[in-house]
Structures are given as structure tokens and as C-alpha cells.
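Field log, afternoon session.

UNIT: design team B
ACTIVITY: writing a sequence onto a fixed backbone
BACKBONE:
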């Protein structure tokens, strides 16, 4: 387990790291500022490949994943124009900034799509079109066989929201086959399979 003080310290560290990574606002149109920020991040880290929307009000946590595997975090608004002022999941000022930020990265998303996004959903490009991957669809449940879905839990890990999706398998071999079919690319998304021989899990870093 992680103490509240350690969780708070890590959260502040990640917030500050994102501020240091991104350009500062120095006047002018906020929308143009977010377009410049987006282009600067692409210059450093390559294409934007995925956007993970982790939580809604009050934090509106978003992870922007780039081609070089760098993930830029956007969290609780600071009251300033910065990386933490963007939101998804409803139409408003923060969503307008996110729309400009994303458009500059090739993610042309409509107001209707922004409004439809729920915590746990992700955005990807398929044939240059923005696709919203819903949280429930992130596990490949084709050919489940002896694997059974158990339940899903929303928890916190190091102070950040996380999704744990639990399954039950009759043995370790069938659990490993199931996990090897999964492609987990979302931040803080875990697939856990319970077996008589112990639990085995997979996240974006691999099986453990």
C-alpha cells in the first residue's frame, strides 16, 4: 500500500513534471497557445498515438501518449493556462482548449465526440479518423473458453485512478494464453486473472 503523503508527493511531482515539459503561456489567444504546445510536444516526442481519459470532475485527468512512449499528464486545473487546463467529457472552456490541442496533433474530434467521452475511454487514430475506445472494450474477450469474467473495480494507485478488470481461469496455462492475447496500451489499466495457482496480471508494461 502507499501512504497518503507518498501519494500526494508523487501526484505533485507528476503535475510539476508536466508543467516543466510544456511551454508556458505568454499572452495572446489561449487556443493558439494550446496549438503551439501540441506541436512542440510532437517535435520532441513524435506523433501523438493515444489519449487516455482517466477521470472527470474535479481533476479531469488525461494522459497524452507519444510515439517515443513519453506520456504527458494533464490533471487538476491550476487556474492558469497550462497543460492542466484541458478537459474532456463535457463541452466547456477546457474542452475547447483540448480540441485545439488535439487537432494540432491530427486528432480532429467533434464537440459531440468530446461530450460522449467517459472516464476510462481512450482516443486513437484509425486511418486518420479519431476512434473512441470505450473502457469495456479494452479487453479482447473473443474465444474466452474456460475463462470467465468476474468483476471490475475502480481503484487508486499512487493517488491516480486505475481500472482493474478481473477474470477467473481454471489453471495458470489458460490464464497466460488469455493474457497473451491482450494488447494493453492504456495508462493504469490492469487485467487480472485469478487461478488456483495464484493471480497473474497484465498492464501496458507486460505480464506479471
Amino acid at each position: 500500500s502507499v501512504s497518503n503523503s507518498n501519494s500526494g508527493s508523487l501526484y505533485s511531482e507528476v503535475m510539476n513534471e508536466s508543467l516543466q515539459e510544456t511551454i508556458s503561456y505568454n499572452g495572446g489567444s489561449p487556443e493558439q497557445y494550446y496549438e503551439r504546445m501540441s506541436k512542440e510536444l510532437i517535435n520532441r516526442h513524435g506523433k501523438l498515438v493515444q489519449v487516455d481519459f482517466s477521470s472527470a470532475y474535479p481533476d479531469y485527468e488525461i494522459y497524452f501518449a507519444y510515439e517515443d512512449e513519453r506520456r504527458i499528464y494533464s490533471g487538476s486545473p491550476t487556474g492558469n493556462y497550462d497543460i492542466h487546463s484541458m478537459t474532456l467529457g463535457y463541452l466547456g472552456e477546457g474542452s475547447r482548449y483540448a480540441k485545439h490541442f488535439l487537432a494540432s496533433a491530427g486528432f480532429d474530434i467533434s464537440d459531440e465526440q468530446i461530450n460522449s467521452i467517459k472516464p476510462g475511454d481512450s482516443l486513437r487514430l484509425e486511418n486518420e479518423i479519431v476512434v473512441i475506445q470505450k473502457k469495456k472494450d479494452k479487453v479482447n474477450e473473443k474465444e474466452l473458453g474456460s475463462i470467465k469474467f468476474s468483476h471490475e473495480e475502480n481503484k487508486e494507485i499512487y493517488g491516480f485512478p486505475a481500472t482493474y478488470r478481473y477474470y477467473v481461469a481454471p489453471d495458470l496455462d489458460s490464464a497466460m494464453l488469455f493474457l497473451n492475447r491482450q494488447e494493453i496500451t492504456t495508462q493504469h489499466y490492469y487485467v487480472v486473472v485469478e487461478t488456483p495457482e495464484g493471480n497473474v496480471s497484465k498492464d501496458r508494461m507486460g505480464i506479471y
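LOG NOTE: Residues 1-5 have pLDDT under 50 and may be disordered.
NEXT ACTIVITY: expression trials, pending approval
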